[in-house]
Amino acid sequence: MSFSRSLRFLTSSIIFSGCTASASIFAQDQLFRLEWSAQPSVRYRLQIARMQDFILLEKETQIEGNLAEVALSSGEYFWRVQAQDSQGRSSPWSDPEKISVDDSKPAATAATRPAPAQGNDQRYEYYRLEAGKKLILRFESYDEQSGPGKIYARINENEFSEIPSGYLELRRAGSYRIEWYALDQAGNRSSAHVRFILIDTADASANYE
Predict the structure, then answer these.
(1) Which among 30, 115, 138, 175 is most buried, taking Cβ atoms within 10 Å?
(2) What pLDDT digit, counting tens, does each position of 112-129 carry?
(3) What is the CATH number of the domain that holds 138?
């Protein structure tokens, strides 16, 4: 499932007056949901900051219950929670947990070998292949925050398939519509790219590598 904003799954232990609770964080759509095990008659103070010292806060709020939904832009954050009972007593802060938010789309490129020749139909990239030769499309995907991603491609109107090796081979004479996109490790999807290819050769096959 692709989110416009995504982050890595994190867990922690939060100590409230000797009670251990499990806290988790995950993303849905453009909101992030922080969740922990609540205790009766207890309010929670939530802080989110860019730095682990929490001197400059991005967000601070009082929570009734055990969850909060917050919107965060791309970057790295720290969050912590403190319990406060009805008599105004406060627990120690939980240990800070790091949030890595990546909402940037990955790059998705494709290069061909051999290079295209001059053709008559300007709608297509024209390739003249000798018998037994093949056209190789080499795909690459990269995101500055999450690193290399996965490539998905399809030929003509077929279903999209992952290209684990990063290569697509064409050998059969004919016209092709090649469409591809990238999916980074945070779940962000690039825009789809399309190339129209015309191959002139007597050989006969097309396959994914």
Answers:
(1) 138
(2) 988 888 777 778 999 988
(3) 2.60.40.10
